[in-house]
Amino acid sequence: MAKLHIVGVGPGSPEYVSPAAHKAVQKAQLVVGAERNLKLFRGEIKGESLTLTAKNVEEGLKYAVGTVKKGKNVALLSTGDPGFSGLLGSMLRRQLTKDVEVNVIPGVSSIQACAAKLCMSWDNAVLFTFHNDPRVEKKRDLAKAVKEGKTVLALPDPNTFTPDEIAAFLLKEGADKKTNVVVCINLTLPNEKIIEASLEEVSEQKFHPLCVMVIKSN
Ligand SMILES: C[S@@+](CC[C@H](N)C(=O)[O-])C[C@H]1O[C@@H](n2cnc3c(N)ncnc32)[C@H](O)[C@@H]1O
Questions:
Q1: What is the pLDDT of residues 175-200, one digit of tens each?
Q2: Ligand 1: residues whose CB is within 6 Å?
Q3: What average pLDDT does the structure give for the chain?
Q4: Which of 42, 56, 59, 187 is deepest in the core (most CB within 10 A)?
Q5: Mind giving me the DSSP string for 59-98?
Q6: Same structural domain for residues 161 and 205?
Q7: Do 65 and 144 sit in the same domain of this protein?
Q8: pLDDT tens figures, 133-176
Q9: Is residue 100 domain-shared with residue 130, that is, in the same domain?
Q10: Of ligand 1's atoms, which has the minimum distance to the CA of residue 158?
Q11: What is the Cα–Cα distance from 132 to 203, expressed in whole angstroms?
């Protein structure tokens, strides 16, 4: 039976793409994904490919499902892990998984790459993603977690809740201006950059959008 493989492809470097991900792509008659993810499988895509952009996500996901319904195997590439701010959520929210067989292949999340880079255990960390989801109640939960001294790992939203805006929001909510922040940019990629600063310093500068923010109690 044809399947929709929702494939986690790691946060950027080809070294973090699993053998299971390669296998699913090689067997697929259609591969759907953002350009930077399709590039990870250059020479391996045997069938059709469709590039996802910010403008055609809805249409691309529906085309993927329609293709599975026609009896073809499809690989849908999702940055990092599909289950954390990834294409699995996009599919579930649109109820697109109910009529097809789905196989989720986990990938290394940017959150995992970030924790590994900083050599930190994230047993007791609190995770937030604001990517396309900067809800007020989530922002309040973040402020509460920081004020309670929890270690936070967060994906900012590149348009509406960037690291400087997150820091400014936390300061306004009464967080200590000396709270430690690490912004991890382009993880696993050749231009990876790790910036350590105080909450106040982060509120005063702009960062590359491909980043994970760590907020640590002092
Ligand atoms: C749509 S979300 C996808 C998250 C992904 N599913 C994951 O598990 O990492 C995209 C956001 O993930 C983060 N991200 C993805 N790749 C990254 C990388 N190589 N370095 C830093 N952050 C990254 C950024 O915050 C980016 O805006």
A1: 999 999 999 999 999 999 999 999 99
A2: 11-12, 78-81, 84-86, 109-111, 131, 155-156, 158, 184, 186-189, 209-212
A3: 97
A4: 187
A5: HHHHHHHHHHHTT--EEEEESB-TTTTSHHHHHHHTT-ST
A6: yes
A7: no
A8: 989 999 999 999 999 999 999 999 999 999 999 999 999 999 99
A9: no
A10: 27
A11: 21
Token pair for residue 79? 């940055």
Boundaries of domain holding 180: 111-216
Number of domains composing the chain? 2
Instruction: Check whether residue 94 and residue 141 sit in a common domain.
Output: no
Does one domain contain both 31 and 63?
A: yes
Q: What is the distance in angstroms between the CA of the first residue and the CA of the last residue of the chain?
A: 54
pTM: 0.96
Record the tokens describing residue 59, joined without a space.
């249409």
What CATH number corresponds to the domain at position 30? 3.40.1010.10
Task: Quote the CA–CA distance of 199 and 100 in Å, as a whole number.
Answer: 46
Residue 218: band (very low, low, confident or very high) from pLDDT cuts 50, 70, 90: low
Which residues lie below 8 Å from residue 187, measured CB to CB, with a gap of 6+? 11, 12, 110, 113, 114, 117, 210, 212
Ligand 1 atom closest to 12 (CA): 19
Query: Rg of the chain over CA atoms, in angstroms?
Result: 19
